[in-house]
């Protein structure tokens, strides 16, 4: 009986901790349709909750029962964020960055498969292309199904603005990134696909997107030369977080993002092309962080040092982009 | 009160269905240290389970409570492939996969959908020399198996025959499943890079070992092309007469894959998501799986079928892979 009380009290403490501004007893009265007195007896653990009440509470406060009971089974709990509207997706990402930046000690680890999504928002033409591609071809939104791509068309102002804001936040977040030579390939093949399928309205649209892609790579090269992150043309006065960029030749990445903030660990695991799900599960995170560190130990540092390797790496990427003009 | 009763009964029904051979009342007596009568009252839903009893029951029967109660909380519960322990041993890892694939094959209707980043474990194992190389690489460089500290790879003497035996069994099970796979040019790349990494780092025992491995990789491509041509899976050197699962292969040019597996088993959908190179988490969450299935179908609709039909595209694709192999080999 004692242990029950403890678990139930733990549950209510957890809710109070995550929602400090509510009156728990009042809310329970409404939620479970019980008297104040009954609510208090439950909070104090004198009266056990039934499964039905438990379900109500968990759904209301968005809690996983597996997490609350810390079940020693092999479950890992994630919050998932399926993409419906692309601008909402970007807003969600911006919030995550702001959250990470609200900590004093913070670091992000990125195991790149493609360039991070926000880096496509450094220059407008590439940003418009990628946004169009994601919405039309991957999210399959019907109003775009017969549209060809033109820079004179939809300019996705809202998405571009949020993208810029994400980049600003990202520039304040110290990062370790693992890239490989494949990291721009999906964008290359997306441009090629539109070219082959005649989705570019004019040759100029294609050229402008390729120009913009080259500018992006130039900027990323400058950042890695300095080992710091900044906006294109940004001033030296603002804080520039350090960037440790490695080339990994051992495996192709997965776009996994791991973050370490004031001793807490969070993992963002991608699924369905660009949706992410998030977990703070300690066992899961231990193994994800360990795998990342193992890959780092087998990779080559090219930011702030390693000029020869860095030049070789970016030259290779730029050649691939140039080939798109053929 | 009625609804509570229902949920608690649902939970016990779920346990009875997943464990048909136990006497639930007897087990509850022992587990919760209560009388037979009390056990029955809980099973009938007359007496609510306390949170601590709930916890004991869930741990005993390995239950993800969110899923059983169909909790609508924006969370998705996954099972991790290694049960949370950090597997350092490839044999244990492969045994885990073998158990999963046997589980798939126990269903009548079974279909596996693959969004490939690399070839699947099962496919590497079609050619023993590739199986040995990949196993060595995973053990030494990903799982950090201490037995291979400083070891070099020799194609002639792979030191763990029991692992190759497991590999063979895995490939056999895989051959029974119907699969739909989305590949692209990148699918061959990580293995080719790994071979090159070994060559450049002097991790092959002799020059010949590198040659053997490259040659085996070409053989693997030949065999996969053969499977694609027939649209049916097969084991190398085995007669095509034994009934095997179908193999539908598409080329996807839109995105790089991520080694996601979707399993359709007698009307239920399961998703397996890859992380940390070799590991998997899986879920049966209907919303999540529905979402991921739809997105897979969208990619299929924009891809090119090259198994059984589309000979021209098939040749083109496999030749591209061979060129890629030759390029990495000679550069």
Strand order of the largest sheet of chain B: 1-7-6-5-2-3-4-8
Q: What's the mean pLDDT score of chain A?
A: 90
- Oligomer type: heterodimer
Main pleated sheet of chain B: 8 strands, mixed
Helix/strand/pairing category of chain A: alpha+beta
Radius of gyration of chain B in whole Å, from Cα? Answer: 24 Å
- Major beta sheet, strand line-up of chain A: 1-7-6-5-2-3-4-8
Uncertain spans of chain A: none
By DSSP, the count of extended strands of chain B is 8
β-strand percent of chain A reads 5-15%
How many domains is the backbone of chain A divided into? 2
Shape call of chain A:
globular
Helix content of chain A: 40-55%
Distance separating the two termini of chain B: 73 Å
Largest contact between protein chains?
A-B, 73 and 71 residues
Helix content class of chain B: 40-55%
Layout of SSEs?
The complex is a heterodimer of chains A (326) and B (331).
Chain A: H1 2-18, H2 24-32, H3 36-43, H4 51-60, H5 65-68, E1 75-81, H6 86-101, E2 106-111, H7 124-138, H8 157-170, E3 175-179, H9 185-196, H10 203-226, E4 243-247, E5 256-261, E6 264-271, E7 275-279, H11 282-297, E8 300-301, H12 307-322
Parallel strand pairs in A: 2-3, 3-4
Antiparallel strand pairs in A: 1-7, 2-5, 4-8, 5-6, 6-7
Helix pairs in contact in A: 2-3, 6-8, 7-10, 10-12
Chain B: H1 2-18, H2 24-32, H3 36-43, H4 51-60, H5 65-68, E1 75-80, H6 90-105, E2 110-115, H7 121-124, H8 128-142, H9 161-176, E3 178-183, H10 189-200, H11 207-230, E4 247-251, E5 260-265, E6 268-275, E7 279-283, H12 286-301, E8 304-305, H13 311-330
Parallel strand pairs in B: 2-3, 3-4
Antiparallel strand pairs in B: 1-7, 2-5, 4-8, 5-6, 6-7
Helix pairs in contact in B: 2-3, 6-9, 8-9, 8-11, 10-11, 10-13, 11-13
């Amino acid at each position: 009986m004692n242990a029950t009380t403890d678990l139930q009290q733990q549950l209510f403490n957890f809710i109070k901790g995550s929602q400090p501004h509510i009156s728990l007893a009042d809310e329970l009265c409404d939620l479970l349709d019980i008297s104040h007195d009954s609510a208090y007896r439950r909070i104090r653990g004198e009266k056990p909750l039934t499964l039905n009440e438990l379900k109500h509470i968990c759904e209301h406060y968005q809690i996983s029962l597996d997490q609350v009971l810390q079940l020693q089974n092999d479950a890992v709990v994630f919050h998932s964020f399926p993409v419906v509207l692309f601008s909402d997706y970007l807003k969600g990402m911006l919030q995550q960055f702001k959250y990470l930046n609200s900590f004093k000690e913070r670091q992000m680890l990125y195991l790149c498969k493609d360039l991070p999504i926000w880096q496509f928002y450094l220059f407008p033409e590439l940003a418009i292309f990628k946004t169009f591609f994601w919405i039309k071809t991957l999210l399959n939104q019907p109003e775009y199904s017969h549209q060809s791509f033109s820079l004179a068309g939809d300019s996705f102002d809202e998405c571009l603005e949020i993208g810029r804001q994400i980049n600003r936040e990202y520039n304040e977040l110290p990062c370790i990134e693992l890239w490989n030579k494949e990291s721009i390939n999906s964008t290359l093949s997306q441009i090629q696909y539109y070219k082959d399928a005649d989705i570019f309205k004019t040759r100029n649209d294609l050229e402008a997107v390729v120009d913009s892609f080259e500018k992006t790579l130039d900027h990323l090269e400058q950042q890695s030369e300095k080992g710091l992150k900044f906006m294109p043309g940004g001033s030296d006065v603002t804080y520039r977080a350090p960037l440790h960029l490695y080339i990994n030749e051992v495996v192709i990445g997965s776009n996994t993002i791991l973050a370490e903030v004031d001793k807490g660990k969070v993992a963002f695991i991608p699924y369905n092309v660009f949706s992410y799900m998030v977990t703070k599960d300690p066992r899961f995170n231990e193994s994800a962080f360990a795998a990342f560190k193992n890959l780092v130990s087998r990779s080559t540092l090219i930011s702030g040092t390693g000029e020869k390797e860095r030049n070789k790496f970016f030259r290779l990427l730029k050649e691939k982009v140039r080939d798109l003009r053929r | 009160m009625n609804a509570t009763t229902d949920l608690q009964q649902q939970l016990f029904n779920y346990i009875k269905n997943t464990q048909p051979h136990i006497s639930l009342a007897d087990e509850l007596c022992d587990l919760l240290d209560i009388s037979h009568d009390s056990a029955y009252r809980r099973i009938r839903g007359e007496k609510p389970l306390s949170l601590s009893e709930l916890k004991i029951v869930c741990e005993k029967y390995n239950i993800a409570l969110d899923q059983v109660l169909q909790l609508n909380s924006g969370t998705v519960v996954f099972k991790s492939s290694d049960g949370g322990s950090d597997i350092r041993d490839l044999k244990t890892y492969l045994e885990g996969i073998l158990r999963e694939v046997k589980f798939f094959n126990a269903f009548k209707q079974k279909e596996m959908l693959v969004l490939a980043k690399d070839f699947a474990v099962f496919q590497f194992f079609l050619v023993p020399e590739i199986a040995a190389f990949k196993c060595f690489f995973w053990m030494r460089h990903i799982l950090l198996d201490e037995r291979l500290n400083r070891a070099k790879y020799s194609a002639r003497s792979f030191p763990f025959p029991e692992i190759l035996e497991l590999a063979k069994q895995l490939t056999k099970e895989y051959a029974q499943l119907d699969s739909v796979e989305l590949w692209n040019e990148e699918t061959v790349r990580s293995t080719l890079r790994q071979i090159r990494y070994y060559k450049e780092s002097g991790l092959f025992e002799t020059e010949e070992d590198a040659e053997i491995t490259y040659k085996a990789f070409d053989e693997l491509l030949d065999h996969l092309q053969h499977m694609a041509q027939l649209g049916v899976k097969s084991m190398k050197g085995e007669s095509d007469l034994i009934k095997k699962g179908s193999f539908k292969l598409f080329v996807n040019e839109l995105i790089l894959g991520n080694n996601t597996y979707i399993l359709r088993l007698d009307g239920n959908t399961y998703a397996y998501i890859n992380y940390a190179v070799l590991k998997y988490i899986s879920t049966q969450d209907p919303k999540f799986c529905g979402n991921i299935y739809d997105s897979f179908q969208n990619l299929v609709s924009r891809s090119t079928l090259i198994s059984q039909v589309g000979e021209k595209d098939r040749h083109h694709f496999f030749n591209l892979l061979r060129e890629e192999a030759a390029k990495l080999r000679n550069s």
